[in-house]
Specification:
Blueprint: E1 50-53, E2 65-70, E3 76-80, H1 94-97, E4 101-105, E5 110-111, E6 127-132, E7 137-142, H2 150-193
Length: about 200
């Protein structure tokens, strides 16, 4: 499926938010046996519902992620996702599309249902997310037929365990410091309570 392939164009390592959790080795548009530089992406390379990663000149109201839509006449255009699915999103120019990489296609995935499943329990190759508002919001997607992955869940549990251990170590260090400070203050107080010698 298309979402398992490497991006159809890879213009820069400083692209916007990475929306695919894994990228396999596959054909890259424009690649030949004698060159390693892919050709810039054009609108003719796009398909409806492609999700792009692109490089905006400014990050002010641009996400660096875009979705390809179709017009009634069959032409395609790509829209940045900063404002989510609402109005006001920026339509990419041909020059901006040339900076883009096709990451995945929405039709290859289904929306995740937070009521009955945990998106992060699925293997990276079986999940995608589409960010907006500089990543503060996102929609989450899962490959149809995919099941929660045991290895992924074990890795998550290991991360939680290491995080808890780190917090415990920090908390113990804070307890030790507080105990030493308390002992010091009590010792200072006892010294102050000692009677003064009469020098007369």
């Amino acid at each position: 499926m298309k979402s398992d392939q490497a991006p159809r164009s890879a213009s820069s390592e400083q692209a916007g938010p990475l929306m695919t959790d894994t990228v396999g080795a596959a054909h890259v548009k424009g690649m030949t046996a004698t060159t390693t530089d892919p050709a810039p992406l054009t609108v003719d390379d796009l398909q409806e519902d492609d999700v792009l990663r692109w490089i905006p000149e400014s990050r002010h109201t641009y996400e660096g992620a875009a979705v390809v839509h179709g017009r009634e006449d069959g032409s395609l255009y790509a829209v940045d996702t900063f404002w989510g699915s609402g109005n006001g999103n920026h339509v990419l120019t041909p020059a901006e599309i040339a900076t883009a990489t096709v990451e995945w296609n929405i039709n290859d995935f289904r929306p995740a249902d937070a009521r009955v499943e945990t998106w992060s329990d699925f293997a990276p190759e079986d999940r995608r997310h589409l960010p907006s508002q500089h990543g503060l919001q996102a929609t989450y997607w899962i490959r149809p037929g995919a099941q929660p992955d045991h290895g992924t869940m074990v890795a998550k549990a290991e991360d939680r365990f290491r995080d808890a251990q780190s917090k415990l170590t920090s908390a113990q260090a804070a307890v030790d410091w507080a105990r030493k400070d308390l002992d010091r203050l009590r010792a200072d107080g006892r010294k102050g309570d000692q009677p003064r010698e009469d020098t007369c």
